[in-house]
Amino acid sequence: MDASAPRTRIQERNRAAILEAALDVFSQAGFRGATLDRIAKTAGLSKPNLLYYFPGKEAIHVALLAGLLDLWLDPLRALDDSGEPVEEIVGYVLRKLEMAREFPRESRLFANEIVQGAPRIADIIEGPLKTLVDEKAALIGHWADAGRIARVDPHHLIFSIWATTQHYADFDAQVRGILGPGEAHFTDAAEFLEQLYRRALRPG
Q1: Quick one: 177 and 145 in the same domain?
Q2: What is the pLDDT, as a whole number, of residue 111?
Q3: Residues 100, 166: contact at Cβ < 8 Å?
Q4: Residue 11 is part of a domain; what is its CATH number?
Q5: Domains of the chain: total
Q6: How is the chain classified by DSSP, letter by letter?
Q7: C-alpha–C-alpha distance, residues 134 and 29, integer Å
Q8: Does position 103 have pLDDT exceeding 60, yes or no?
Q9: Do both 109 and 176 map to the same domain?
């Protein structure tokens, strides 16, 4: 399919169906375990029809990851230098936790890619992602230097936020195995994480 040509509504619908099916398959089977046949079957399309939209499994995977990264980074982009620092950071924590609840498949897809060494998105991680994280780390460092939050390592603060929020998607089976089924643990986690980060960020 010519990527530069405008897509019809049917083409947009089929492409969306392929990506949605691939998200299911990749998040369950990983990149290596996923097959084009399984993705096509899940999408309700023939394999030749799928190949009209994407030249192969890797192209589908990269399209998913690129869209996911854009979605995943929106809350970080939203950190506002004119806002109240503790509220901005705690708000970021809570948005990330909500995304773990709403988009668990997407989180697991990204985690699987990183565990494998990020072979398909290393250029994104070392390029736009690093640029954004460095920019927001500089903002957090400025807040700390001004005494508006506790002195923390900005990069490791961001990493800790990712770890404590995405855990609830990436290790969902473990969380539910320990705490039981249902969604109540997200409410409890939000309360706990808010208290945790408020205490950690409170200026001395």
Answers
A1: yes
A2: 87
A3: yes
A4: 1.10.10.60
A5: 2
A6: --TTSPPPHHHHHHHHHHHHHHHHHHHHHHHHH--HHHHHHHHT--HHHHHHH-SSHHHHHHHHHHHHHHHHHHHHHT--TTS-HHHHHHHHHHHHHHHHHH-HHHHHHHHHHHHTT-TTTHHHIIIIIHHHHHHHHHHHHHHHHTTSS----HHHHHHHHHHHHHHHHHTHHHHHHHH-SSSHHHHHHHHHHHHHHHHHHS--
A7: 33
A8: yes
A9: yes
What does the buried/exposed string (b/e) look like for 36-63 if buried means 16 or more CB atoms within 10 Å of the residue's CB? Answer: bebbbebbebeeeebeebbeebeebbeb
Q: What is the mean pLDDT of residues 128-136?
A: 95
Euclidean distance between CA atoms 129 and 124, whole angstroms: 6
Task: Give the CA count within 13 Å in the CB-facing half-sphere of 65.
Answer: 24
Q: What CATH number is associated with residue 176?
A: 1.10.357.10
Query: Does 33 share its domain with 110?
Result: no
* Whether residues 68 and 165 fall in one domain: yes
Taking only the tens place, the pLDDT of each residue in 55-92 is 999 999 999 988 888 888 899 999 999 999 999 999 99
Full residue range of the structural domain in which residue 14 is found: 1-55
CA-to-CA separations, 200 to 86, 146, 184, 197, in angstroms, rounded: 10, 16, 25, 5
Residues 155 and 194 grouped into a single domain: yes
Where is the domain boundary, 55, 73, 92?
A: 55
Last residue of a domain, one of 17, 32, 55: 55
